[in-house]
């Protein structure tokens, strides 16, 4: 008995040592990752200097390029959700066999280089589009498709879509009401994930905007880096901070909403739903 | 479960719901090469609870989904109070449905779930809340009105789903194995609750299940299905005591198969005696199996009998005794537990049949 107790004691000591070891390693990894990510930011901050932040706002093209980027983010998000949501729901409900094919198709924008995409788009786009912001927004829709689709797909997988749709139908709701009142509210978390990814993508995209000759915020930063390095770096930091704040806000609101109804935290590709407890 | 029950009942009765007749006529449905339904016809009287019972893949759920409007029949019609519903979409059929899997809307509280159908019927907010509250009370879940589905247990969720289906005062209630995901105790409670409510409200109900105990204990009539066809539809006792086919006999309750020989005079030589074959036997004379329930066999303690007791299972007042007969055939015989007490494994016994008509079936080749 004593030997067993001794064994148990040394076992618990071993496991407590292991837990301590794990904690130390976690901190080491966290600190290394922190240094890796924060060092460049700190360097950028030192290079720009605090005074540069004051002059950013008044700089030529700052406001218009920022507004263009925000506008593009909004238009892209709206078109992406309007296209991808009904598609994903329809495929899940009616064409489950096509799901894999659709997944394959939505991967294409990641595989095809933006340059190839732009050359193709410019060759076939009608004239009125070429002079409009919509052209870039449409290109961004293609670019955002893999991320948006995957977020929505994860959300739909977490739902028993067929059953709740049929339940809604049997209670007298038509398709539009079912989509609006039953499916959409339960996909809020997944939609927020899709929005977060799309917005982040649009606010940071450079290649397409530059090749299409749009002066979006990233393009403006790059152009100004040639002439006024400090201001451009300050603008980058400002953009980074604002984007981060924006994404945090969306994530926090979404998570709070979804927790209330048993949904999981917003993680960008999976939307976990809590299990029902017992019988 | 009492305060608002009377209120809910009176609302129900005021709405003029007195049960609806349902007629399924020659329903057939194929999925590719598989015939899920093959000429199914059932007539349901107003206020009747009919259970469709059968193994998985027998077409019972397809039949229910056709009635609900989620599937369309290739041939055949569904008549509700004489009106053909075949082309009426699911959301206009006025049929309440409780699903096998948990079907509550996760984004709505229990109360909002129950009120959803009323909202679709354009009832005012106050009236909706009042009625939904009454219905929740009816299923004994008034205190959980504000909880979300993930905060409710499985049994509670199915009760909310039942309240939600009843809230719209449906003409027909459709139950698609609503108890199969629940544990035995909750299942028993909910089974009784559903039956009590169904009878009190007089609502015509079609209930699909693969659990014979559930079907026999709840339904006015049970339809046994096999490979898309209705083998027999009858009251539970009729089905148990006078099964029309060997399949029904074996699917409902426990049934022994004892080898025998059908003679040209319609007598069957079995267990060393002669008993008459049941009316309607269409087997040709020769080797057959005789189908007998465990309570239909006689068992006597005797030296050098035709069987040896191999096992006993205690069911309270009754004990089921397993007896090995010659030819490696094992039969089960129900005896009062007091009598079975003197029949330990290894005891020699005589198994025989009373001289009553028996159901015979083609001889089943012994499985290795």
Record the SSE blueprint.
The complex is a heterodimer of chains A (279) and B (368).
Chain A: H1 2-48, H2 50-56, H3 62-94, H4 99-111, H5 114-124, H6 127-130, H7 133-157, H8 161-170, H9 175-186, H10 188-204, H11 207-211, H12 217-227, H13 229-260
Helix pairs in contact in A: 1-13, 2-13, 3-7, 3-10, 3-12, 4-7, 7-10, 8-9, 10-13, 12-13
Chain B: H1 5-14, E1 22-31, E2 34-44, E3 49-53, H2 60-68, E4 75-80, E5 83-84, E6 95-98, H3 110-120, H4 125-138, H5 154-167, E7 172-176, H6 184-201, E8 204-209, H7 212-218, E9 221-226, E10 229-234, H8 236-241, H9 246-251, E11 256-262, E12 267-270, E13 273-276, E14 286-292, E15 298-301, E16 307-314, E17 318-325, E18 329-336, H10 337-340, E19 348-352, E20 359-362
Parallel strand pairs in B: 3-8, 3-9, 6-7, 7-8
Antiparallel strand pairs in B: 1-2, 1-4, 4-5, 9-10, 11-12, 11-14, 12-13, 14-20, 15-19, 16-17, 16-19, 17-18
Helix pairs in contact in B: 3-4, 3-5, 4-5
Structure in words:
Chain A is mainly α and 279 residues long. Chain A is 81% helix and 0% strand. In chain A, α2 (50-56) crosses α13, α8 crosses α9 and α10 (188-204) runs antiparallel to α13. Chain B has 368 residues and is an alpha+beta fold. In chain B, α3 packs across α4, α3 (110-120) packs parallel to α5 (154-167) and α4 crosses α5 (154-167). The longest helix of chain B is centred in the middle third of the chain and has 18 residues, at 184-201. Chain B is elongated and about 80 Å long. The mean pLDDT of chain B is 89. Chains A and B meet through α8 and α9 of A and β6, α3 and α5 of B.
